[in-house]
Amino acid sequence: MAKFFAKFTAIAILIAAFAGCSSTSSNSSMTVGAPASSFAGIDQQVRFAPWSGQSAVGQLAKPYFISFRARNAESYGHSFVAFGELDSRGNVPYDNGGVLVSDMTEIAGLHPAGGNAVYTMGHIAPVPSETGFSDGDTEIRYLQNEMTIALTPEEYRRILGRIRQLQGNSPLWHAVAYNCSSFTNKIADFMGMETVNHLLFPRNYIAALKDANSGVETLSGSVDTLG
Fold it and tell me: Signal sequence span per UniProt (predicted)?
């Protein structure tokens, strides 16, 4: 039995090393990666326009948004969703420092609840999770890929209800069986989108999600692909 467990553990760690998303809570240094602009091999340039100072609510037909996102980290990266109000120009609101405006936006994403020891154990067995903000989620300099969709008030209320439901019913994280991209897949599925392999690296997961849902109308977002 001991030999079997050791073999299983080694296989689980090997799979996780090549698997998609593995993020940690804001208490762990594993979430602190290099800015996306200096990420090894990155093929995208990050830019943003500071928000207009006014919300789109009451001004635009689709004043809300949900953004499926991947960010850099020292581990494999992290996939999550940002959501909330657009600004009056129809842009995702960032302050002058490239940080999401906190009173207009929110983050939901699955990650281990604890530090590096919990994160490491999550490659072997399920560990307790958190489903909100993790370090680096709001900063555009860590953003690697995104798919942003504008929403009507009714669409937003429905999707927000599903996010809250998932946040209340996702007590565990596992690097392979149920990771951050598994969580975002459930949101995409609720929206009627095609879901993709949750074991892809997060930035590749978002790229695959966009390819699988090319007919979905999206905002230009904040990530430009270099020619």
Answer: 1-19
* Averaged pLDDT of the chain: 83
Cα–Cα distance between 175 and 182 in angstroms, integer?
10
The average pLDDT across 124-132 equals 96
Query: Model pTM?
Result: 0.83
Q: What burial class does residue 216 get, using C-beta atoms within 10 Å of its C-beta: 0-12 exposed, 13-18 middle, 19+ buried?
A: middle
Mean pLDDT of 59-78: 94
List of residues 6+ apart from 101 with CB closer than 8 A:
51, 93, 94, 95
The share of the chain scoring above pLDDT 90, in percent, equals: 71
* % of the chain beyond a pLDDT of 70: 77
Domain residue spans of the chain: 2-225
Strand 143-151 versus strand 111-112 pairing type:
unpaired
| The pairing of beta strand 64-71 with beta strand 143-151 | antiparallel
Residues listed for the chain:
227
Nearest-CA neighbor of 198 among 188, 4, 190? 188
Contact 19, 175 (CB under 8 A): yes
The whole-angstrom separation of Cα 15 and Cα 13 is 5
45 pLDDT higher than 80: no
